[in-house]
Write a structure and sequence with these properties.
mainly alpha; two-stranded antiparallel sheet; about 50% helix
Length: about 200
């Protein structure tokens, strides 16, 4: 079941959405939980041909000459077969059930509602008023596309340890300082009491 950030079933317009139970509508399956799409399947399906496949273009990596060769290599694939990286959003060092929380609790929620918003835009057009939930869902999705690519996630992972390590060091210093201040305050209070005895 798809849940929102507080763990409640995600709802929109009075109906409850069920993540991977939606099957073909949104293109997710329970077997693809570790296949993290930075270009979601529901979005890629718009470019699929009559056979359900689309053309993926890539620049092969050649370790002996240049990082990226000038050649472009086309490949026909289904939407679920491109625009992903294995365990891209997995949190390292967590047990399997928790390691997938970014994909399970954020991106599935974001993609599911964005799929509804896109369907609404395609069927009714952009000139007709859209519900606030769908407008927010679509803008959240567009912003997520800017931040969820492998290079962005790699940069976040590199910064993550540094940021939280520094925070932990600062927190320990702050805690030690506050503990010292508390001890000094208690000592000062004890001295004041002693003066009046």
């Amino acid at each position: 079941m798809l849940v929102d950030f507080q763990g409640s079933p995600a709802t929109i317009g009075g109906s409850t959405r069920h993540g991977c139970d939606m099957g073909e509508v949104h293109g997710c399956t329970t077997t693809s939980l570790k296949k993290h799409h930075y270009i979601p399947v529901f979005y890629l399906k718009r470019w699929a041909g009559t056979d359900g496949r689309l053309c993926e273009f890539s620049r092969p990596y050649d370790q002996f000459s240049r990082p990226y060769d000038h050649r472009v290599k086309p490949r026909m694939t289904h939407p679920a077969g491109t625009g992903y990286e294995e365990n891209l959003y997995s949190m390292q060092g967590f047990e399997p059930a928790l390691a997938q929380q970014i994909e399970e609790r954020f991106f599935k929620f974001t993609n599911s509602l964005a799929a509804d918003a896109l369907e609404r835009l395609v069927t009714r057009g952009s000139r007709r008023r859209m519900a606030q939930e769908l407008r927010s869902a679509w803008s959240r999705f567009i912003i997520s596309l800017l931040l969820r690519t492998p290079p962005d996630i790699q940069a976040l992972r590199a910064q993550w340890g540094h940021t939280f390590t520094d925070t932990d060091v600062e927190a320990r210093k702050s805690t030690r300082k506050s503990e010292r201040m508390e001890i000094l305050q208690r000592s000062a209070n004890t001295l004041r009491k002693c003066q009046f005895i």
